[in-house]
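User: Fold this; tokens only.

Assistant: Input:
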Amino acid sequence: MSSINVGFGNCLFTNRNPKVIQGVISERIMNPKYVVVTHRPKEVKVETIDDLHDKLLLKYDNNEDVEGTITWRPSQDGHQYVFTKFE
């Protein structure tokens, strides 16, 4: 989880549409330039929990899935969201 926080901490997202979040995370987590992880997930799923939290599920081939909660904060302009942490 710490590599996700390092890779996405304070990253700005234009919106919290689950498909947008899933797309950005999938694109970046597959690229070692952004996030250093030893195993690449085969699938990324995002579900909205509330105004500042989303559930993130990373599914792996070896059935060792990682699941946690993304915490957001509104950007300074109030129109975007900043990835604060993943726990």
